[in-house]
Amino acid sequence: MNIGKWYDPISERWIVPRPPHTIAAFGQSNAEKVSEANRREETQRIWNLLVDCCARG
């Protein structure tokens, strides 16, 4: 997931996330891979809602 940079009004600076660590997927079952994909989608959904909420001010 790539969120990109965002502005933090408290510190008044742009925040650039660290590059994601590569995690070896060897040995993971298909169910674990699907579960990880679902978590990423849910994280992205929550992030989008948070950004929308904060943008409304």
Name the structural class.
mainly alpha
Number of helices: 1
Shape: elongated
Summarize the helix and strand pattern as letters: EEH
- The strand order across the widest sheet is 1-2
Distance between the termini: 25 Å
Helical proportion? 40-55%
What's the short version?
With 57 residues, the chain is mostly helical. The protein is built from one helix and two strands, in the order ββα. The model has no long low-confidence stretch (mean pLDDT 76).
Chain-wise SSE layout:
Elements: E1 6-8, E2 13-15, H1 30-56
Report on the structure:
The chain has one helix at residues 30-56, and strands at 6-8, 13-15. The chain is mainly alpha-helical and 57 residues long. Strands 1-2 form a two-stranded antiparallel sheet. The radius of gyration is 15 Å and the shape is elongated. The protein starts with 5 loop residues before the first strand and ends with a helix. The mean pLDDT is 76.
Structural descriptors:
57 residues, 47% helix, two-stranded antiparallel ribbon, elongated, single chain, mainly alpha
